[in-house]
Amino acid sequence: MAQSRLYYHVVAFLTVAVWGSTFVITKMLLTAGxxxxxxxxxxxxxxxxxxxxxxxxxxxxxxxxxxxxxxxxDEWLMVxxxxxGGSAYFLAENSAMLFTTATNTSLIxxxxxLFAMFLIAAVYRQTEHISRVQLAGSLMACVGMAVVVxxxxxxxxxxxxxxxxxxxxxxxxxxxxxxxxxxxERYSTIFITRxxxxxxxxxxxxxxxxxxGFPSMQTLTRPDVMVNLLFLGVxxxxxxxxxxxxxxxxxxxxxxxxxxxxxxxTTIIFAWWLLSEKITLWFAIGSAxxxxxxxxxxxxxx
Length: 302
Known about the structure:
Blueprint: H1 2-31, H2 36-59, H3 72-99, H4 102-109, H5 112-123, H6 132-150, H7 160-183, H8 189-202, H9 205-210, H10 217-220, H11 223-251, H12 253-257, H13 263-275, H14 281-301
């Protein structure tokens, strides 16, 4: 049992590590002239098409292809997952960057495990309980995440609009974790993930009615742009969403969501590797707090 849980934690860590790199990859695409919403749309299109083709291929080998949920209520659940884990989350997070600093955005969005913990405990009072050790571990990891993000500059430049949008993204991911707990009890991971991509794309369409426009083929066919988009679509979206939804099923939403605290760590490591940014002592201190806090949370679960 301990070995299997360790395996699930390794998968969660690798998933968050890839997501941490997406901030750097997205920054490269932004400099190429592609907007944040266009990046989201393209990566979800790639992920959805590939996942759909894969399921169609599997269905041709004897497995029946399921297109709709068993009940209308469950279908609306998938819509909510597509909004909270797709369109609303990415739109709020990317829009926040227009009004506030990257530091504020990272600090607020990456605090979502705390909100997810209390939200899940409130909804599932009979089965999910927050112990003192678990709460202390999550708070320690949250403090560590803040130390990593702030990097010794403990002054925040408040921006009500930007900070509120970042908070909306934070709540979206917390709600997504809550809804995934229910969806995972009824449907397969690959079916849920495909639905998330589909409804994420469907619910982003109103944005293009207000702000029309899409990158030119000349931009999209640039080798660096194609490689980065394929990485975001295939690895960071299709594979990582599949793995993350599977990890939530195995570890539980409360424990799995705590791995979001690692996101700034992997972002800084990839920024150091790809953009030659410096790693400071604050990074080491914050990382140690995150690892210790995660250990306390996991020890409570055994």
